[in-house]
Amino acid sequence: MSNVGKKRKIVLENGKEITIRYIKFSDLNAIWENYNEVVDEGRYLPAFEHVTSNYEKKTWYQDLIGLGNLCIVAQDKSLDSDEDIVGQCTIEDVQWEASDHVGVLGIIVRKSHRNMDIGYHLIEFSLEEAQENGKEKIILTVFETNKHAISLYQKLGFDTVGVRKKHFFMNGQYIDEILMEKWIGD
Ligand SMILES: CC(C)(COP(=O)(O)OP(=O)(O)OC[C@H]1O[C@@H](n2cnc3c(N)ncnc32)[C@H](O)[C@@H]1OP(=O)(O)O)[C@@H](O)C(=O)NCCC(=O)NCCS
Q1: Which atom of ligand 1 is nearest to the CA of 116?
Q2: Mutate to test the pocket of ligand 1, among 13, 152, 154, 180 (most ligand atoms within 8 A of CB)
Q3: For the chain, what are the domain ranges?
Q4: 85-134: per-residue pLDDT in tens?
Q5: 140-166 burial by CB neighbour count: b if 16+ within 10 A, else e?
Q6: Domain 7-136 - what CATH class?
């Protein structure tokens, strides 16, 4: 991937300066801390277990780089250097060879940094990079109950294309999974 040094500085309404850039190996622990925090929240991802092993983290990173998948992070340099990655957006290939033009989007913003537009900027930058890397369509899935994420995706031009009814069972109730996509090709 030729753009790995590319970055963008954004200034949030609250004056905070955030750097949006490609992932580095040294970001790994912070990224998985952000993931584990969302697992603990228990209402946005269909996962129950933390990722803690260094082996698992490194394997994920090696696969990401090896397969040419995209991971864009948001860095808040005003924080302690070990914990300054406050969000991440991945766009990964789907399994099928005939769907090489399609990427699957995933996003997490750390709880302390939500509702500051970081998610919007992370996705906007990631879509631009995915397009430069030849992707033409971006797909994602989201819990029907995750109104904030759905609103963000809609503002970025994603359309709802389907619903998997009662696809997850969490906290004693079924949750529908919404399928969304955005065409970014010509
Ligand atoms: C969903 C999530 C990634 C959103 O990130 P965020 O940084 O809080 O979102 P933002 O601050 O960028 O967006 C906030 C609002 O401003 C809007 N917005 C932000 N920047 C904008 C811009 N430049 N132009 C137009 N709208 C904008 C967003 O659409 C959203 O609208 P809303 O208030 O109607 O909901 C975050 O809440 C999160 O990590 N949640 C837990 C994990 C999760 O749910 N992941 C997604 C699983 S599918």
Answers
A1: 11
A2: 152
A3: 7-136
A4: 999 999 999 989 999 999 999 999 999 999 999 999 999 999 999 999 99
A5: bbbbbebeebbebbeebebeeeeeeee
A6: alpha beta
